């Protein structure tokens, strides 16, 4: 896909969207527009008043999806592709609009997670059973969240207590001797000093399958299983009307096996996620609300390929964040002022990476609403003790053409901070590495009428000072004994594409689909970026009959390259999934899911195995 082709496709799709009959527009269903989202503006806002390209996955959709993992759920969404080194418990990468895993931000209940050494989140360690809903915001959000928000932001919300005390639980079993169980309790008390609470815990274990294929030098035909244990909780206390104190936590431990070519030692890795946050929400004046949050996020990784010290490694990273957010209402507008202080620390068996850095941030944004016109402006400065100051800005405009059709245009700058590995890892990092920079422009049309939803978004994100690993590495001429450096800011890249999605309810039938056309290219070499397909699509159809809902899904991915030199080609693939849910009564429901019905053999990473045909069944209590 060339740039010219994608632009013509974008213009054609926008023209088609504009051709929607006016009669449909007059019957607009406000349900979608009235859903409330938080991530796009850091404050609750109606979806119809948000200029950014957003997507939300609610609790019902998560339950009915029957997805085996968070990564499985995300790869069915528009604008997202994944790569995985084996089965569900192994290392995974999530690409948003072609941006690399460390060029996106992941939040859990407002707490930023991820490793300071790799820059990416440990996706496989995040338990899907603890998730209530998910919000995805596409495009640069550095003005709101700082470094690394080049491709987008994914925020995961865990369950929150409300209403009368309620219990929930589920148990499931599937292929590869996969066992899953979880339980939770939530609720809230009334009165002047209302107390809300939610607590959940879960366990998942599987024998798995060999993570590598016979062609791999690390191949071992044994099964590579995993076990994940997790717990999450929230509590909030209303001290007085408009004043709330609260705390929330998430802890998850993942143990998984992988292949390293050794037959005498069972190679394995362990990942731990630990989040803790304390917050105070205060309505200081009728027009002024304040949120102060202190949080700590830990990402711990232990790896063993043998019994000696040289064959074991430990990397512990910690992020401590203090944020103070002030939202000031000015009529229908919102002025937001933000202060942030973030400290990153690393403890590791690789002593050279044991460093720390702090970043102090000041930001302001303004969201305006005037009739059918929407405008948002943002400006932010991040001052780091490691890479200095970075200023980012954004502007977006939206216009309601009629009751159902809305157009949007935006421009924003972003940056990614170099990771501790890219800075300090021996024989790899370069201490003088600078942040990567991004400049994104996009146009969108969004249509919501009756039971019909349509979206078309064209984006053009140009990256400069891209950090790449070069070969051969360079040795210091000043100090020849110093480790050679391999990472440099040398490349330019382009992330350009068209994202289309549609959904329609036809009586008992539900239809939805999305198509992504992506041009992710290294402009310095004119090569495609690794593991990004130029074409990716998902289609689904479901049928509801009383308590039964059943459906079929189709995932299509085009060919792509496994390496930056574009010499190793990965073939395209198509997968068919079946699912059915049955509501036994008001409290009990059952789920059956059959993934990869045709047992298709494919690769999303060279010489790493992907799941074949898998069957999973579960029974649930208390899930609405």
From TrEMBL:
One GO cellular component assignment for this chain's record is: cell outer membrane
Which ranges carry the TonB-dependent receptor-like beta-barrel domain? 196-597
Q: Which InterPro entries match?
A: Beta-barrel_TonB (IPR000531), Beta-barrel_TonB_sf (IPR036942), Plug_dom (IPR012910), Plug_dom_sf (IPR037066), TonB-dep_rcpt-like (IPR039426), TonB_box_CS (IPR010916)
Q: Where in the cell is it found?
A: Cell outer membrane
Signal peptide extent: 1-25
BP GO terms, sorted: cobalamin transport; monoatomic ion transport
Q: Which residues form the TonB-dependent receptor plug domain?
A: 54-153
Q: What are the protein's UniProt keywords?
A: Cell outer membrane, Ion transport, Membrane, Receptor, Signal, TonB box, Transmembrane, Transmembrane beta strand, Transport
Topology in the lipid bilayer: Multi-pass membrane protein
Q: Where primarily located?
A: membrane
Q: Which stretch carries the motif TonB box?
A: 35-41
| Gene3D superfamilies the UniProt entry points to | TonB-dependent receptor, beta-barrel domain, TonB-dependent receptor, plug domain
Coiled coil ranges: none
Q: Which family does it belong to?
A: Belongs to the TonB-dependent receptor family.
**The name this protein goes by in its record:** Vitamin B12 transporter
């Amino acid at each position: 896909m060339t740039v010219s082709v994608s632009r013509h496709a974008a213009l054609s799709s926008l023209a088609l969207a504009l051709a929607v009959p006016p009669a449909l527009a007059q019957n607009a269903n406000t349900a979608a527009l009235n859903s409330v989202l938080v991530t796009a503006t850091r404050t609750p806002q109606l979806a119809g008043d948000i200029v950014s390209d957003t997507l939300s996955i609610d609790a019902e959709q998560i339950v009915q999806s029957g997805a085996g993992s968070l990564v499985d759920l995300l790869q069915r969404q528009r604008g997202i592709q994944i790569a995985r080194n084996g089965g569900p418990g192994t290392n995974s990468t999530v690409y948003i609009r072609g941006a690399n895993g460390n060029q996106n931000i992941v939040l859990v209940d407002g707490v930023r997670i991820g490793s300071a050494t790799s820059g990416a989140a440990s996706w496989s360690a995040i338990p899907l059973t603890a998730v209530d809903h998910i919000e995805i915001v596409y495009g640069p959000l550095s003005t709101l969240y700082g470094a690394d928000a080049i491709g987008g932001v994914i925020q995961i919300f865990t369950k929150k207590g409300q209403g009368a005390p309620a219990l929930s639980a589920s148990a499931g079993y599937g292929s590869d001797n996969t066992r899953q169980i979880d339980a939770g309790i939530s609720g809230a008390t009334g009165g002047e000093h209302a107390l809300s609470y939610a607590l959940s815990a879960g366990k998942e274990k599987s024998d798995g399958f060999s993570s590598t294929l016979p062609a791999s030098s690390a191949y071992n035909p044994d099964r590579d299983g995993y076990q994940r244990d997790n717990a999450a909780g929230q509590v909030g206390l209303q001290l007085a009307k408009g004043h709330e104190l609260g705390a929330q936590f998430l802890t998850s431990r993942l143990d998984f096996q992988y292949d390293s070519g050794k037959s005498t030692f069972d190679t394995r890795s362990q990942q731990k996620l630990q989040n803790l946050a304390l917050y105070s929400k205060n309505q200081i004046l009728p027009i002024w609300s304040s949120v102060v949050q202190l949080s700590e996020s830990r990402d711990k990784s232990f790896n063993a390929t043998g019994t000696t010290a040289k064959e074991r490694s430990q990397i512990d990273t910690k992020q401590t964040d203090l944020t103070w957010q002030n939202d000031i209402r000015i009529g229908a507008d919102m002025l937001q002022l933000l202060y942030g202080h973030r400290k990153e620390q690393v403890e590791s068996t690789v002593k050279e990476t044991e460093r720390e850095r702090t970043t102090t941030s000041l930001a302001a944004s303004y969201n305006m609403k005037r009739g059918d016109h929407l405008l948002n402006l943002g400006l932010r400065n991040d001052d780091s003790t490691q890479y200095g100051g970075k200023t980012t800005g954004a502007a977006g405009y939206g216009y309601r053409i009629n009751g159902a059709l809305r157009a949007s245009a935006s421009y924003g700058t972003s940056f990614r901070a170099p990771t501790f590995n890219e800075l300090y890892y021996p024989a790899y990092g370069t201490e003088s590495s600078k942040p990567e920079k991004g400049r994104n422009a996009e146009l969108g049309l969004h249509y919501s009428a009756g039971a019909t939803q349509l979206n078309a978004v064209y984006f053009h994100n140009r990256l400069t000072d891209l950090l790449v690993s070069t070969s051969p590495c360079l040795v210091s001429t000043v100090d020849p004994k110093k480790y050679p450096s391999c990472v440099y800011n040398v490349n330019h890249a382009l992330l350009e594409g068209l994202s289309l999605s549609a959904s329609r309810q036809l009586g008992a039938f539900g239809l939805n689909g999305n198509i992504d056309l992506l041009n992710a290219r290294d402009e310095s070499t004119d090569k495609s970026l690794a593991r990004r397909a130029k074409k990716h699509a998902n289609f689904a159809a479901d049928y509801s009959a009383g308590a039964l809902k059943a459906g079929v899904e189709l995932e299509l991915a085009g060919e792509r390259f496994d390496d930056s030199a574009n010499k190793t080609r990965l073939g395209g693939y198509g997968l068919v999934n079946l699912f059915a849910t049955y509501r036994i009564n008001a409290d009990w429901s059952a789920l059956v899911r059959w993934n990869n019905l045709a047992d298709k053999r494919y690769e999303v990473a060279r010489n790493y195995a992907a799941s074949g045909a898998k069957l999973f069944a579960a029974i649930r209590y208390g899930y609405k």
